[in-house]
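JOB MANIFEST
job_type = single_chain_structure
chain_count = 1
residues = 167
[input]
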Amino acid sequence: MRVLALVALTGLALAATACATVEPAPPPSPAVAAAPTPVEGYDWFFHQDAAAARLAYGLEASDDLRLGLDCDRASGRLSLSATGPKGAAPEIHLESGGETERFAARSEPSELHDGVFLTAEADTDAPVFQRFRRIGWLAIWQDGARQAYAPHPQSAPDIEKFFAFCG
């Protein structure tokens, strides 16, 4: 009987040791962040003439521009414009689906608000713009805060039209 008790205790000790050395399961991978949703009143607006095009995010027919992309036909180059808070770094920091780029910018006091107006140049084939073409939204980072600009369904096709025009 004593032998049986010793065998049982040894078995329990081995089981406890085995349980103690088992590695815990890794935490589940974080879910892919969902695309931002469109904001009422704000949208991407596309304008084109024979030689140039503009894709701008803001309020239609107003001076409330959050981000502007301009190009000449088939140039492969973009002119970027954005507003920033007073004292903002002279850069336009963009993100699309985790792809980020910082573009050195010229900064001047804004005539429309208490902040700065930023302008920069970029290639249309920069990874952040290629991702924007694929997933349809672009974000700007300022002072550690991210503002995502998603199109409404009717304006989403204009993103590809703009980049096809720009080359």
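[summary]
Strands lie at 42-48, 52-59, 65-72, 77-85, 91-96, 99-104, 106-109, 115-123, 138-142, 145-149.
Confidence is low (pLDDT under 50) at residues 1-32.
exit_status = 0
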